[in-house]
Each structure stands twice: as structure tokens, then as C-alpha cells.
Design brief:
Number of strands: 12
CATH superfamily of the largest domain: Response regulator
Strand content: 15-25%
Shape: elongated
Structural class: alpha/beta
Largest sheet: 6 strands, parallel
CATH architecture of the largest domain: 3-Layer(aba) Sandwich
CATH topology of the largest domain: Rossmann fold
Order of helices and strands: HEHEHEHEEHEHEHEHEHEHEEH
Number of helices: 11
């Protein structure tokens, strides 16, 4: 009888501990998170949105992926401003323009709303930290491929969007590697303004008019690579080196065919998934102050930068990548 009583008491204690532990791990019903970006309908950002919403489903919190469907930095800023009126629990944002978003991010922090940048940064703002690719190293990685493919000499056209910090960092990586090859010259920087047609038309003009000798095309963002590949294929042009960025299905297809020498794959799904998990942790384990300069604090509970990594995809591993991608996303 005594043993049974002790056993019942023990079971009761275990049950109470289990319930308390379960309650402690529950997320709040009023948690509401946002991922803000621009051009959100392209495959890159659809992958990021999937990671964000997957994390929200796992944690049973409210989450919404917002922003313009086309590349529109001003529209993204206005979307961010509207969110501040809703007083969200936390915001992930990929600033198309770090300068343009600077004041709004600072306003959110002053209002007690944690803000983490993903993919593209606003380093002068008071955002808590950045999650994404080491973009300088991504540029180095692509430049090494271009230099090897072109045997250290030739004229290169680069497609980019100046002022976007991640792309500027990639360009810096290319410039630093190319500096070691006196025969490699960047002859044009083309601002595509978020419009893939600019990349297509510019490449067609270069190939069709034959006024300028171009040996390589470098694409620092996701939109241009497939357009360059399409033009080269349409005009039956071979012998040009193309290095792309990201894993748009058409980009992967041109890589598979050998038209694109390589593309640098990022992890947008991982960026947003990890970002939401970290915002949630900040809600449950609040900082003393959001406005403290945590990046300079040697005992900071926050990292300054979370590197989600990048992978070089070329003809040798593109099939394996596509297979892994389908397994992970079901598409």
C-alpha cells in the first residue's frame, strides 16, 4: 500500500513537471511576425517565404510574407511603414536599399519591435543583426570560376543593381579577384533595375551589334543569368563565359546545358526559417534594450552576422542539386 502511494506521488510529480515544461514551451497566441521584401514573386523569394511560413507552422505563430510583386524599393519601404502601425512581434526585412530603409528600421527598434535583416543588409541602421550569405565570399567564389574559365583574360560585362548592399559586396569580391589578373577587365556595369528584360536586351545588343568585344557575362543577382543564357542560345553563340547567381529553374537548366558555367546557390529558405526562430527567441527572452549597440558588446547575447552559406553549382553537380531541391520542397 505504501509503495503504491509513493508510486502515485511520483507519477503526479512527473506529470506536473511535464505540464509545466509543456506550458513553458508554448508560444503566445498574439505573436505576429512579418517577412518584408521586394519582388516577392520570383522563385528566390518564394523559397524564402516557404521557409518563413514553415517555421511559423512548426511554432504555431502568426506569420505573413509581404512586399511588392515587382522590384520596387519605395513600395517595400511603404509596406514596412504600414507594418509599424500593426505593432508586430518582430520583422525580418531584406532592404532593396539599405539607405532608404535606414530610418524606418530605426523607428521600429525605437518602438520596441525587433528587426533582423536577411539576404540584404542595412548596416548603418539599428537592426539587431544580419542573416544571409557572406556576399563578398560569394563574389570571390564566382570570380574564381570566371577567371579560370576565361584563362585570366577577357572583357566582362556585369549585371547588378547598385546600392543594394549584398550585390555591392559581391561586386567587391569580383573586383578583388580580377585585380590579380591584369588581362581581365570589367568593361560595363549594367543596372537592370530589377527588370530581367534589361539583361536580355543588353546582351542581345552586345551580341547582335558586335561593336564591343565581350568574353564573359557576370550576373550578381537572380534575374539576369537565364536571360543571358537565352540570348546566347538564340544566337547560337558559344565560347562565352557566364557566371550566374541563385537557382531559378531556367538558370539551372542553362547550367545543365553548359551555357552557364556556374551559378552560386544561396539558402533563402534557411535565412527566413532561422530568422523567424531567432525573432521568436527574442520575444520569449527579451533583451535589456533593443537600442544597445550589441555588435560592439563583447558579451552580447546576439551574433553580429549569421552566415547561411553558399554552394557553387556547375554541370558536375547540377543534377544532384535539382534532385535535393525537389526532395526538400516537393517541387
Amino acid at each position: 500500500m505504501m509503495n503504491r502511494s509513493k508510486g502515485s506521488s511520483l507519477l503526479l510529480i512527473v506529470a506536473v513537471i511535464f505540464l509545466l515544461g509543456g506550458c513553458a514551451s508554448q508560444h503566445s497566441a498574439d505573436e505576429n511576425y512579418y517577412l518584408v521584401t521586394t519582388n516577392k514573386q520570383i522563385p528566390y523569394w518564394r523559397a524564402a517565404g516557404a521557409g518563413f511560413l514553415h517555421a511559423a507552422t512548426q511554432m504555431k505563430v502568426k506569420a505573413e510574407f509581404v512586399g511588392p510583386d515587382t522590384y520596387d524599393p519605395k513600395a517595400e519601404q511603404l509596406e514596412f511603414e504600414k507594418l509599424l502601425q500593426k505593432k508586430p512581434t518582430g520583422i525580418l526585412v531584406s532592404p532593396a536599399s539599405g539607405q532608404l530603409m535606414h530610418a524606418d528600421i530605426d523607428q521600429a527598434i525605437a518602438a520596441g519591435i525587433p528587426v533582423i535583416t536577411v539576404d540584404s543588409d542595412s548596416p548603418e541602421s539599428k537592426r539587431l543583426f544580419f542573416i544571409g550569405t557572406n556576399n563578398y565570399q560569394a563574389g570571390v567564389m564566382g570570380a574564381q570560376v570566371a577567371a579560370a574559365q576565361m584563362r585570366g583574360k577577357g572583357n566582362v560585362v556585369i549585371f547588378t543593381m547598385p546600392g543594394q548592399t549584398n550585390l555591392d559586396d559581391r561586386l567587391r569580391g569580383y573586383r578583388d579577384i580580377f585585380a590579380s589578373y591584369p588581362g581581365l577587365k570589367i568593361v560595363r556595369l549594367v543596372d537592370i533595375h530589377g527588370d530581367p528584360r534589361v539583361a536580355f536586351d543588353t546582351t542581345e545588343q552586345i551580341i547582335g551589334q558586335k561593336k564591343e568585344k565581350v568574353d564573359g557575362f557576370v550576373c550578381l543577382e537572380a534575374l539576369a543569368g537565364k536571360e543571358v543564357g537565352e540570348v546566347l542560345d538564340r544566337y547560337h553563340v558559344t565560347g562565352k563565359t557566364v557566371v550566374a547567381m541563385d537557382t531559378d529553374p531556367d538558370t539551372l537548366d542553362w547550367t545543365k546545358k553548359g551555357v552557364i558555367a556556374a551559378t552560386v546557390a544561396q539558402k533563402p529558405y534557411t535565412m527566413s526559417l532561422v530568422g523567424l526562430e531567432m525573432l521568436d527567441d527574442l520575444y520569449h527572452h527579451k533583451l535589456r534594450s533593443l537600442q544597445q549597440n550589441w555588435a560592439q558588446d563583447p558579451f552580447s547575447p546576439l551574433p553580429a552576422f549569421v552566415d547561411t552559406g553558399a554552394t557553387l553549382i556547375d554541370k558536375s553537380n547540377v543534377d544532384a542539386f535539382i534532385s535535393a531541391q525537389k526532395s526538400a520542397t516537393g517541387k
